[in-house]
Specification:
The protein has about 250 residues and is of the alpha+beta class. It has a single domain, classed as PSTPO5379-like fold. The longest helix has 13 residues. The two termini are about 25 Å apart. About 50% of the residues are buried.
Amino acid sequence: MTTTTPEQVRAHHDGPTAGLADGYAQANLIAVPAEWAYDVLLFTQRNPKPCPVLDVTDRGGTTTVLAGGADLRRDLPRYRIWEHGELVDEPTDASAHWRDDLVAFLIGCSFTFESALRRADVPLRHVEQRVNVPMYVTDRECRPAGRLHGPMVVSLRYVPADLVGTAREVTARMPAVHGAPVHVGDPGALGIADLDRPDFGDRTAPHEGDVPVFWACGVTPQAAVMASEPPFAITHAPGHMFVTDVPDTAYRL
Protein backbone atom coordinates (compact mmCIF):
# COMPACT_ATOMS: atom_id res chain seq x y z
CA MET A 1 0.00 0.00 0.00
CA THR A 2 1.13 3.56 -0.67
CA THR A 3 0.13 6.93 0.75
CA THR A 4 0.96 8.74 -2.49
CA THR A 5 -1.69 11.37 -3.23
CA PRO A 6 -3.63 11.46 -6.51
CA GLU A 7 -2.00 14.76 -7.42
CA GLN A 8 1.48 13.32 -6.85
CA VAL A 9 0.69 10.34 -9.08
CA ARG A 10 -0.64 12.58 -11.84
CA ALA A 11 2.38 14.85 -11.65
CA HIS A 12 5.24 12.41 -11.25
CA HIS A 13 4.41 8.72 -11.77
CA ASP A 14 5.46 7.01 -15.00
CA GLY A 15 4.40 3.36 -14.58
CA PRO A 16 1.36 1.21 -13.80
CA THR A 17 -0.85 2.70 -11.09
CA ALA A 18 -2.12 -0.37 -9.19
CA GLY A 19 -1.56 0.12 -5.48
CA LEU A 20 -1.02 3.88 -5.78
CA ALA A 21 -3.12 6.61 -4.12
CA ASP A 22 -4.84 4.06 -1.92
CA GLY A 23 -8.48 4.92 -1.34
CA TYR A 24 -9.01 6.90 -4.54
CA ALA A 25 -10.79 5.90 -7.71
CA GLN A 26 -8.90 5.35 -10.95
CA ALA A 27 -10.22 5.57 -14.51
CA ASN A 28 -9.59 4.36 -18.04
CA LEU A 29 -9.47 6.92 -20.86
CA ILE A 30 -10.64 6.89 -24.46
CA ALA A 31 -10.86 10.08 -26.53
CA VAL A 32 -12.31 10.03 -30.05
CA PRO A 33 -13.32 12.60 -32.66
CA ALA A 34 -16.78 14.03 -32.00
CA GLU A 35 -18.05 12.23 -35.10
CA TRP A 36 -17.39 8.93 -33.29
CA ALA A 37 -18.47 10.04 -29.81
CA TYR A 38 -22.06 8.79 -30.11
CA ASP A 39 -20.82 5.37 -31.21
CA VAL A 40 -18.58 5.20 -28.12
CA LEU A 41 -21.36 6.45 -25.84
CA LEU A 42 -23.77 3.87 -27.23
CA PHE A 43 -21.12 1.14 -26.95
CA THR A 44 -20.58 1.96 -23.27
CA GLN A 45 -24.33 2.06 -22.62
CA ARG A 46 -24.80 -1.34 -24.25
CA ASN A 47 -21.77 -2.85 -22.49
CA PRO A 48 -21.83 -1.38 -18.97
CA LYS A 49 -19.92 -4.23 -17.32
CA PRO A 50 -16.59 -3.57 -19.11
CA CYS A 51 -17.37 0.11 -19.88
CA PRO A 52 -18.98 1.87 -16.88
CA VAL A 53 -18.80 5.60 -17.64
CA LEU A 54 -17.72 7.97 -14.85
CA ASP A 55 -17.50 11.19 -16.90
CA VAL A 56 -17.64 12.50 -20.47
CA THR A 57 -16.03 15.76 -21.54
CA ASP A 58 -17.42 18.37 -23.88
CA ARG A 59 -15.99 18.46 -27.38
CA GLY A 60 -12.39 19.67 -27.07
CA GLY A 61 -12.48 19.48 -23.29
CA THR A 62 -9.31 18.54 -21.42
CA THR A 63 -10.58 18.59 -17.82
CA THR A 64 -12.90 16.43 -15.74
CA VAL A 65 -14.99 16.84 -12.61
CA LEU A 66 -13.22 13.75 -11.28
CA ALA A 67 -10.05 15.74 -10.51
CA GLY A 68 -10.09 19.52 -10.27
CA GLY A 69 -7.17 21.14 -12.07
CA ALA A 70 -6.06 17.94 -13.80
CA ASP A 71 -5.28 17.94 -17.51
CA LEU A 72 -6.30 14.83 -19.45
CA ARG A 73 -3.61 15.53 -22.04
CA ARG A 74 -0.69 15.07 -19.67
CA ASP A 75 -1.80 13.71 -16.28
CA LEU A 76 -1.83 10.00 -17.11
CA PRO A 77 1.44 8.06 -16.84
CA ARG A 78 1.32 6.83 -20.43
CA TYR A 79 -0.99 7.10 -23.44
CA ARG A 80 -1.66 5.20 -26.62
CA ILE A 81 -2.22 6.96 -29.94
CA TRP A 82 -4.29 5.08 -32.53
CA GLU A 83 -4.77 5.69 -36.25
CA HIS A 84 -7.22 3.47 -38.16
CA GLY A 85 -6.96 0.82 -35.45
CA GLU A 86 -3.16 0.75 -35.44
CA LEU A 87 -1.04 1.75 -32.44
CA VAL A 88 1.32 4.50 -33.65
CA ASP A 89 2.76 5.98 -30.44
CA GLU A 90 2.88 5.55 -26.65
CA PRO A 91 3.86 8.96 -25.25
CA THR A 92 3.92 10.04 -21.62
CA ASP A 93 2.32 13.34 -22.69
CA ALA A 94 -0.46 13.40 -25.31
CA SER A 95 -0.58 17.20 -25.71
CA ALA A 96 1.00 17.13 -29.17
CA HIS A 97 -1.63 14.64 -30.35
CA TRP A 98 -4.73 16.14 -28.72
CA ARG A 99 -7.28 17.68 -31.09
CA ASP A 100 -9.99 20.29 -30.64
CA ASP A 101 -12.67 17.86 -31.86
CA LEU A 102 -11.98 15.12 -29.29
CA VAL A 103 -14.54 13.92 -26.77
CA ALA A 104 -13.01 12.04 -23.84
CA PHE A 105 -14.65 9.26 -21.84
CA LEU A 106 -13.48 8.30 -18.33
CA ILE A 107 -14.42 4.70 -17.60
CA GLY A 108 -14.36 2.97 -14.24
CA CYS A 109 -11.29 0.89 -13.39
CA SER A 110 -10.97 -2.22 -11.24
CA PHE A 111 -7.92 -0.75 -9.48
CA THR A 112 -10.55 1.28 -7.60
CA PHE A 113 -11.86 -1.74 -5.70
CA GLU A 114 -8.42 -3.10 -4.81
CA SER A 115 -8.19 -1.15 -1.56
CA ALA A 116 -11.51 -2.74 -0.52
CA LEU A 117 -10.13 -6.17 -1.42
CA ARG A 118 -7.02 -5.45 0.62
CA ARG A 119 -9.11 -4.40 3.64
CA ALA A 120 -10.96 -7.72 3.30
CA ASP A 121 -7.57 -9.53 3.41
CA VAL A 122 -7.77 -10.61 -0.23
CA PRO A 123 -4.17 -10.59 -1.55
CA LEU A 124 -3.26 -8.76 -4.75
CA ARG A 125 -0.57 -10.83 -6.44
CA HIS A 126 0.30 -8.26 -9.12
CA VAL A 127 0.86 -5.58 -6.47
CA GLU A 128 2.91 -7.98 -4.33
CA GLN A 129 5.03 -8.89 -7.37
CA ARG A 130 5.24 -5.28 -8.58
CA VAL A 131 3.98 -6.05 -12.06
CA ASN A 132 1.16 -4.70 -14.19
CA VAL A 133 -2.13 -6.59 -13.84
CA PRO A 134 -2.52 -9.22 -16.60
CA MET A 135 -5.32 -8.59 -19.12
CA TYR A 136 -6.71 -10.89 -21.81
CA VAL A 137 -8.88 -10.57 -24.90
CA THR A 138 -11.78 -13.03 -24.58
CA ASP A 139 -14.00 -14.73 -27.12
CA ARG A 140 -17.04 -12.92 -25.69
CA GLU A 141 -18.16 -10.32 -28.19
CA CYS A 142 -19.54 -7.06 -26.86
CA ARG A 143 -22.88 -5.83 -28.12
CA PRO A 144 -22.07 -3.68 -31.19
CA ALA A 145 -22.97 0.00 -31.33
CA GLY A 146 -22.99 1.89 -34.60
CA ARG A 147 -19.57 1.43 -36.15
CA LEU A 148 -18.01 0.13 -32.93
CA HIS A 149 -17.63 -3.56 -32.15
CA GLY A 150 -15.12 -5.89 -30.54
CA PRO A 151 -14.45 -8.48 -27.82
CA MET A 152 -14.56 -8.02 -24.07
CA VAL A 153 -11.23 -7.74 -22.28
CA VAL A 154 -10.80 -9.08 -18.74
CA SER A 155 -8.28 -8.53 -15.97
CA LEU A 156 -7.02 -11.46 -13.90
CA ARG A 157 -6.37 -11.65 -10.20
CA TYR A 158 -5.34 -14.89 -8.55
CA VAL A 159 -7.36 -15.33 -5.35
CA PRO A 160 -6.99 -18.03 -2.68
CA ALA A 161 -9.85 -20.50 -3.14
CA ASP A 162 -11.33 -19.81 0.30
CA LEU A 163 -11.47 -16.06 -0.43
CA VAL A 164 -13.14 -16.15 -3.84
CA GLY A 165 -16.56 -15.61 -2.23
CA THR A 166 -15.21 -12.63 -0.31
CA ALA A 167 -13.70 -11.14 -3.47
CA ARG A 168 -16.97 -11.58 -5.31
CA GLU A 169 -18.99 -10.00 -2.49
CA VAL A 170 -16.65 -7.02 -2.05
CA THR A 171 -16.45 -6.14 -5.73
CA ALA A 172 -20.17 -6.67 -6.38
CA ARG A 173 -20.79 -3.63 -4.20
CA MET A 174 -18.90 -1.46 -6.72
CA PRO A 175 -20.65 -1.83 -10.10
CA ALA A 176 -19.39 1.57 -11.32
CA VAL A 177 -15.87 0.10 -11.43
CA HIS A 178 -16.78 -3.27 -13.05
CA GLY A 179 -18.41 -4.91 -10.04
CA ALA A 180 -18.38 -8.67 -9.49
CA PRO A 181 -16.21 -11.03 -11.56
CA VAL A 182 -17.49 -12.23 -14.92
CA HIS A 183 -15.85 -15.65 -14.51
CA VAL A 184 -14.03 -17.81 -11.97
CA GLY A 185 -11.84 -20.76 -12.84
CA ASP A 186 -11.12 -22.32 -16.23
CA PRO A 187 -9.74 -19.61 -18.57
CA GLY A 188 -10.72 -21.73 -21.56
CA ALA A 189 -14.34 -20.80 -20.88
CA LEU A 190 -13.38 -17.26 -21.95
CA GLY A 191 -11.32 -18.43 -24.90
CA ILE A 192 -8.05 -17.72 -23.10
CA ALA A 193 -5.44 -20.29 -24.09
CA ASP A 194 -2.48 -19.40 -21.87
CA LEU A 195 -2.55 -17.35 -18.68
CA ASP A 196 1.22 -16.93 -18.88
CA ARG A 197 0.82 -14.88 -22.07
CA PRO A 198 -1.47 -11.93 -21.34
CA ASP A 199 -2.51 -9.67 -24.23
CA PHE A 200 -1.83 -6.60 -22.07
CA GLY A 201 0.08 -6.17 -18.82
CA ASP A 202 2.39 -8.73 -17.24
CA ARG A 203 2.29 -12.36 -16.20
CA THR A 204 1.41 -12.83 -12.54
CA ALA A 205 2.56 -15.92 -10.67
CA PRO A 206 -0.12 -17.68 -8.59
CA HIS A 207 0.44 -19.08 -5.14
CA GLU A 208 -0.50 -22.64 -4.27
CA GLY A 209 -4.25 -22.83 -3.76
CA ASP A 210 -4.99 -19.72 -5.85
CA VAL A 211 -7.88 -19.66 -8.31
CA PRO A 212 -7.96 -17.42 -11.41
CA VAL A 213 -10.70 -14.79 -11.10
CA PHE A 214 -11.60 -12.56 -14.04
CA TRP A 215 -13.17 -9.10 -14.00
CA ALA A 216 -14.45 -7.12 -16.99
CA CYS A 217 -11.81 -4.58 -17.97
CA GLY A 218 -11.82 -1.00 -19.23
CA VAL A 219 -9.27 -1.89 -21.91
CA THR A 220 -12.28 -3.26 -23.81
CA PRO A 221 -12.67 0.02 -25.77
CA GLN A 222 -9.10 -0.40 -27.03
CA ALA A 223 -10.00 -3.84 -28.36
CA ALA A 224 -12.95 -2.16 -30.07
CA VAL A 225 -10.63 0.48 -31.56
CA MET A 226 -8.45 -2.29 -33.00
CA ALA A 227 -11.47 -4.14 -34.39
CA SER A 228 -13.43 -1.12 -35.66
CA GLU A 229 -10.55 1.05 -36.92
CA PRO A 230 -11.79 4.58 -36.23
CA PRO A 231 -9.56 7.16 -37.93
CA PHE A 232 -8.10 8.42 -34.64
CA ALA A 233 -8.25 7.75 -30.91
CA ILE A 234 -6.25 8.39 -27.76
CA THR A 235 -6.39 5.96 -24.84
CA HIS A 236 -4.46 5.26 -21.67
CA ALA A 237 -1.78 2.59 -21.87
CA PRO A 238 -3.18 -0.53 -20.16
CA GLY A 239 -2.60 -0.36 -16.41
CA HIS A 240 -1.49 3.29 -16.59
CA MET A 241 -4.63 4.89 -15.27
CA PHE A 242 -5.99 8.37 -14.59
CA VAL A 243 -5.96 8.70 -10.80
CA THR A 244 -8.91 10.82 -9.68
CA ASP A 245 -9.59 12.88 -6.57
CA VAL A 246 -12.78 10.89 -5.91
CA PRO A 247 -12.70 8.55 -2.88
CA ASP A 248 -13.30 4.93 -3.83
CA THR A 249 -16.14 4.89 -1.30
CA ALA A 250 -18.12 7.16 -3.64
CA TYR A 251 -18.57 4.14 -5.91
CA ARG A 252 -19.47 1.66 -3.20
CA LEU A 253 -23.11 0.65 -2.69
